[in-house]
Amino acid sequence: MRSSHQFVRNNLLRSHTAAKSLSQSRSAPWQRSYSSKAAPALSGIDPSKLTITPTTAPKELIPNKELVFGKTFTDHMLSIEWTASEGWFAPRITPYQNLSLDPATCVLHYAFTCFEGMKAYKDKEGRIRLFRPNKNMERLNQSAARIALPTFDGDAFTKLIAEFVKKDGSFIPNEKGYSLYLRPTLIGTQPTIGIAPPGSALLYLIASPVGPYYPTGFKAVSLEATDYAVRAWPGGVGDKKLGANYAPCVVPQQEAASRGYQQNLWLFGEEEYVTEVGTMNLFMAIKNKETGQNELLTAPLDGTILRGVTRDSVLALARERLVPEGWAVAERKVRMTELAEASAEGRLIEVFGAGTAAIVSPIRNISYKGKVVNCGLKDHEETGEVALRMKNWIEGIQYGEEEHEWR
Amino acid sequence: MRSSHQFVRNNLLRSHTAAKSLSQSRSAPWQRSYSSKAAPALSGIDPSKLTITPTTAPKELIPNKELVFGKTFTDHMLSIEWTASEGWFAPRITPYQNLSLDPATCVLHYAFTCFEGMKAYKDKEGRIRLFRPNKNMERLNQSAARIALPTFDGDAFTKLIAEFVKKDGSFIPNEKGYSLYLRPTLIGTQPTIGIAPPGSALLYLIASPVGPYYPTGFKAVSLEATDYAVRAWPGGVGDKKLGANYAPCVVPQQEAASRGYQQNLWLFGEEEYVTEVGTMNLFMAIKNKETGQNELLTAPLDGTILRGVTRDSVLALARERLVPEGWAVAERKVRMTELAEASAEGRLIEVFGAGTAAIVSPIRNISYKGKVVNCGLKDHEETGEVALRMKNWIEGIQYGEEEHEWR
Predict the structure, then answer these.
(1) Could you give all domains of chain A from N- to C-terminal order, each with its CATH number?
(2) How many DSSP H helices and E strands does chain A contain?
């Protein structure tokens, strides 16, 4: 199909005639696109050009106890348009409002979308903190490059996020466990249905005040190992935070729920390697069969799992604080049968998911081929010790109780 | 993450509080969802409820020679809203207009989108014809069920498409090779970012007048075999027409183009099976090494290739019209090395892509591991005989020159 471009102008989107330059060499092209950035003639994101149009109809704050993840949003949104011919336009903070999109817009047909999940926290002194935003900016750029969306200067966008969070700071609850969930989103906006690199795009950010994932303390979940669908593949896009990875996850999730399991567990290949749980990374604490040493294990970044920021934080804290206690920490492939064997032999200490929403999510058991694999918790326990310590360490940094380079 | 629902009302979208029922049994759940349809209390699509709001600003027709695929659209659009609590709303034909979408709308974040490509033709008598619309309806329902979007009565939607095509019939050029490209699209519209089955959706159709894919006759293309990325895999969603399958195809396509190849060729697995070309199915005509018989081969529907309507038509016509001439026709896996060997031994007769846009697309050669595999055309030829006959047969049916059950 031949690509094409057309003009459209409305209150939130511009699209200009444009052609995207192609990168020239062979392997892993999206890595190169990312590092090469835009051509010099095009404008980068410029925080000094930010304009703010305050809302004239401020929303009422919702009581902390009634907050639901991703249901209500703050007064404003941040948006930055891009065209292939001009680069990034001046950033704008405007009242939260609908996008006006041509029905031919390429994101609606071909899933030109990638996003991030981040949180802003208020510390004891009421100061607003972000947690490792550079990791999110790095990943969003990698995701964008993989689907021919424009890359950008992560530091400049982080500055704008900070401005936005200050503007809507009143929506961040003053209570530990509460935060403002931030959703940076980058979509292709070209209003033509030829399959081609989008000639225009919109980078925007919306924010939703959220409560603790476990308001009454941890509640360990049960998983169903999915044996009829595969989330990702080497050479595929499962390691990028693309919209394309999410819609196909919902039916297996529903299926697990219909049989009483809170999440599904993704296995990979004939070896049935344990990869991810629902939309979180997975950690397993196992006593080594030969040496008796405690090991904290998680799947390696081989292209089939998401490059989780919380995963990275758990690994770093484990290496810093568990290894001196005698633990081993490893990123390696673990077969589902290895997990089942450790459970049967009483060597499975605990298992937990890790992600931005819950930080950690303890797992009680896994349904696998009609059997239930117990994940090490006693009946009265809702979390293992490692998951609990990780949550406390990470929250301590997020809420500024511990000074750390990540906040 | 917990799912949630909220109310919003605007000129083109409704979203109601709703919970979707879960199907109960185990394997291939999306197949069942499709066959079980919606719960009886919910409204199905009802063509008798169609309302038509004609445009007050009709567009000028574009001269045939200036038409570009998917760039300009007709005066109207067809849309039908759905909510989990009420089912399908009354269908509407309205002026072509922007959609007003909350920035939290789930299609923008999680790629809840699937679509079809169809064409409407004018025959010699000026009557409007559709080509095998039941196949598109079947596939759109299968795609929808796989990503937890609502399924629908394909016959009812086809009736509405016919009404729409009558309304905008003046946009269908009166010239063979020209047609009206129809784009049915189904998107999730729930304005919350919890990952869950969308509680609301929009089925809509837009249409773009298009010219022949090869305005001056066939032009054989060159392909680059992609060895660094994988389009689809067993247990994945590569056999569904989901938006999610398209955005990740653009960079490999750009890479091929940057080295002078018009399309990329997707291989799969260590065996490097030949699967699809760009966004088309692939056919290979090879003389069998042992028997000397001519064989028309294409990849089987094993979940890694799209269930193409043109693919199905080519196979059916080959079985009906080539087999009596002594050809064998087979859906089987073909290794790239097998193709290269047939070429080297002078047994590769021709290779072509098949899809709705081009019908067939002859292939001159394939770049594979630094070598060029010649696909059987002589230097002065732009198509092989099988591709040419297939195009003539299919166009003959599409434009009503041959009476056939498919039109």
Answers:
(1) 47-210 (3.30.470.10), 221-399 (3.20.10.10)
(2) 8, 21
